[in-house]
Each structure stands twice: as structure tokens, then as C-alpha cells.
Amino acid sequence: MKTYLECIPCFFKQALEAARLSGVSGKTQKKVLDEVALCIPGFPFTSSPPEMARIIYGVIKKTTGNGDPYLKIKEESNKLALSVYPRLKKKVEHSRDSLLTAVELAIAGNIIDYGVKNTLNVEEELKRILDKEDKVIRKENKSIFNYKSFRSALKRSNTILYLADNAGEVVFDRILIEEIKETHRDKKIIYAVKEKPVINDALREDAVSAGIGEKTTIISSGVDTPGTVLSLCSKKFLKIFKRADMVISKGQGNFEALSDCKRPVFFLFMAKCPVIAKDVKCGLGDVILLYKNKRIKKEYRSRLNGSPGE
Amino acid sequence: MKTYLECIPCFFKQALEAARLSGVSGKTQKKVLDEVALCIPGFPFTSSPPEMARIIYGVIKKTTGNGDPYLKIKEESNKLALSVYPRLKKKVEHSRDSLLTAVELAIAGNIIDYGVKNTLNVEEELKRILDKEDKVIRKENKSIFNYKSFRSALKRSNTILYLADNAGEVVFDRILIEEIKETHRDKKIIYAVKEKPVINDALREDAVSAGIGEKTTIISSGVDTPGTVLSLCSKKFLKIFKRADMVISKGQGNFEALSDCKRPVFFLFMAKCPVIAKDVKCGLGDVILLYKNKRIKKEYRSRLNGSPGE
Fold this sequence. Notes:
Two copies of one chain form a homodimer.
Chain A: H1 7-21, H2 26-39, H3 49-64, H4 71-93, H5 98-108, H6 111-117, H7 122-131, H8 147-156, E1 159-163, H9 169-183, E2 188-193, H10 204-209, E3 217-220, H11 235-243, E4 246-250, H12 251-258, E5 265-270, H13 274-280, E6 287-292, H14 298-304
Parallel strand pairs in A: 1-2, 1-4, 2-3, 4-5
Antiparallel strand pairs in A: 5-6
Helix pairs in contact in A: 1-2, 1-3, 2-3, 4-5, 4-9, 5-9
């Protein structure tokens, strides 16, 4: 997804928030905004928002000297999510369609990220999700929800690459990963995190503390962008990305970075930003399971239609 | 009120909106944002937001060639507000405390401005206000509401200066002005509008089309800032501002410009911006009638305590 002009006010909002979390003075916070302002005229608007965000977070690191302003928030998010893990498990166990519930919860976990960046009370929101009877997400919020394609791709795939989004949310990913492993023991699941801190994106330590490592191989994508920008990924990661039978991509950042990539991807996220909602053609706040497969290269198409990988 | 760092993202949001309303290409819209970005490092943060906004709207005018991008919106707002005028009048007439209802409606009219700048459905919101039984505004939204001081100042004052806010809202101001004139025929009311177009601020033609002129003298403050910035006002206006027995200031922009001024002012506005809500120490969306009189100069104090001006 390209960067829209509406993203510019948001870049400043994010920069100010990160500068404040860095604990610097008002004067230095202003300096961060001044430096970001000077970057704007040179921004290539054909790039995706995560590529721009990388420049901005580079400015923040350089100006404040703090390379990981969200560290404490990430730790708190992990703790909060782990505290509801037993209830999430129970919810999946008692569900009529356990895979569907696990998928819904994995997307609902994205609310933690929204809470970090907004005034939303995450604990109350999680309580609301957990108190719901059977269905986790209301039907009207699922404008794009390609669940059938997801379920059938899962059956066919041996190697699944799962792109992590944020800290805290990783616990919700674990729920889905465990559900997949429960019914498909032979599947190989690779969980990709970011290489270096950027915003509240999940790193290896977040995945480990969430208990992801027990069932899954954790790798790094090699990037420090809030989204898996392929041109910046490591060669090792790109090989896995290319060869995986199925890619599950979590969060808006990964959607922004990969929505135009030339392989099929299942995007799971909450449309929390009006620009993304407009791009995807869905409502703000919608729970999205979007299967992008229009630009599939031949090699993938053959695999999807019943290749040896089935 | 000084400008806060949180105002910067908002300046970009406003600049983009105005650039779009100017009807220019995406390339020119980007140029507007680039030019605004270049202004940021030089911004004096001791100035009020309307002073900054003046610089920004200057950039928009220079870059797009359109000096009044909100013209059509202003005309539509006036039309919409005039269409509900008879119902507003009836509401005041049937009220137990007609002055209170007129004050509440004058503040509620500020919702038109909010609708212009956000996605709110103004017509529905106005319907909600008009459908309310007797009380227009719920009590819990009136955290700061110095109505008694307002009522008694009104009784004591001969000359009242009323600072207009936006187009459309002027019709709601007319309701309050007519109510004052109804019970205090001898009062002289002066209604001050902006000299030149800036955002959707009311100009002389808006006041005239709202029917303000029938009961009131319309003057210009001399400014093209979205708020009455005294250092930029005309000498004629400043004389009136200084000598008036009572000043009624409408809207956030006028509060931002005048909150630190050295004369008593009654500020009537809806706290639609989180920065202002924080500054005033009220909730977002609150209906505010704030009497600022802490920095009153001697000459005003004597008048308030029963001078020949009573």
C-alpha cells in the first residue's frame, strides 16, 4: 500500500508519542517534530507507510538517544495478554468451530495495539471480547472475512509462515498457532518477528515470553520497520517467505508493507486507521481476514491448485 | 492559550483539508504540506494556535491560489442553520428559563463547526438537540458553566461585545442576541466578525444573511486569524473591546486567542479538541460557559463592582 497524504498528520502524532515515551524534555520533543518536518518534502510517496515510519523512528532514536521507547509498554502488554491466556484457551475449547474462534481471537488481539496508541481501555475491551457467548466478533464487523479460503489453504499447506505484529498480541497468535497444531500436528509453523525495536512491534523476546517457541520456530525477518518491508528483509527470511505454502500476516503494518506483494497472503487485522479502511474498502473497526491472491505468480498458483506441496 | 506540540499533527490535518477543498491536484496538496512542514521549525510556540493557523492558511492561499476554500461550506452551514431557526425560537419561547436555553443553544450551534471539520452528521445532531424536552444540554456535559455570573453581568452591562465564531453558528448567536434584546431593550450589542476569510469563520456577509444586523451593530475585528488575536486587531475594534461592559466570546478559536487577555470575558464553546479540554480541565465534548476574570485590570473591576457603567 502506498502512503497517502492523510498519513502525514499521523506521522507527527506517532513521532510526538514516541518522543514523549522516550522521556525527553519538551524542547527535545519539539526538536523531534522539527526534524520529522524537514523529512516531509523528501518523502517518496510511492513507498509504503512502514518505510516512512522507519525514517521517522530513526529520527526519534537519533534525537532522543532512546532506541526502544515502547519497551515498558511491550512488557505490560505481554503481561496483560498472558493473564487472559487461560480464558482464551477455554473460549476456543468450548467453541463450535474452534479454528474460527481462534482466528477471531488472533485478530481481536490486535486491539491491544490500538489501546497502546489510543485512549481505549484495553482491559475492558478484552473483557468485552471474552464475555461474548460463542461468537467472538459480531457479524456486521466482518465485511471481508475469507475464512473458507483460509481453512482450505491451511489443510493444503505443510509450511506456514506467520508474520507477527505487536507485543501482547503474540499471546493471541499463540492461541491460533496451538489450534492449528492441535488439528494438524504435521504442519511446520514459522513465526517471524522484527529484528530490532520499532514502536511496539514484537521481537524474539516477546514471542518467547508469550510461549510461542514451544510449538513453533521463531525467526527474524531482518527488518526494523513496523511492517515486513521485503526490500529490507534478510535473504534467509525472503527464502522462507517465497517457499512457504501459506503466509499468515498479522496487523495493519504488515498489510501496508505486503498488500501489493506477488504471492498469496492471508491478512488478519483490525482496520483501525481510516486510510487503511478506505484502501481495503471496509468500515473503520472492521475485523478483516483478507485473502490477497490476484497477483499470484505461476509457481504459487500451481502449488495452490494441488502441487506436491498439498 | 499557547500552542501545544499536539497542535502540530492537527495543523497538517487542517492544511490537507483546506488544500483539498481548494480543488487543487494531489501534487499541489502535497506541496501545501511540504510548505507547512518547512514552517514548523520556525514556529514560536509561545504564540496561540490561531496565530499559527494564520501562517498555515497563508501558505494554503499562496500555494493553491484559493483564498476562501470554505466558501461553499459556509453558505451551506448558514442555510442549514436558518432552516432550523423557527424551531430554535420556539424552543426558547417554551422554555422555563429562556435566557439559559438561548445560551445553551448558542453553544450547541458550535456543533456545526465540528461537523464541518469532522465526519459528524450535523443535521442529525441538530435534530437530537431540538428534540430534547426542555433542557437542551445534559447536566453531566456542563462541567464548567458560570451561568449565574453571566446572567448578573448581563443585567449590569450596557454595552455588550459579542465575538462571532463560524458561519451557520451565527444563526444560533442571533437566537441569544434576540433573547437579550427581548428582556433588555436598552442594551447595545456589537457583533464582531473576521475581516477576511479564514477556515469557516463568520464574515460580515454571514452575519447579515443570518439576520444579525436587525438587532445589532456588526463590526469587523480586523483580523484574518481563526480567533480574535488582539495584537492583529484594528484600533477601532480594540477600543470597543477595551470599553465594552461585557464580552461574550464564542468558539474555541476565540478562547485560544483570548484566554490570557487582561479583561473579563465570558467564553462560550464546546470543548471539541483534546488539547483545549486539557487546558480548561474539562471533558471532551463538554459545553463550556467559562467566566475568566482572574487577571482583571482595575478599570474593569470598578465597573463590575458598580461603576457609572452599571
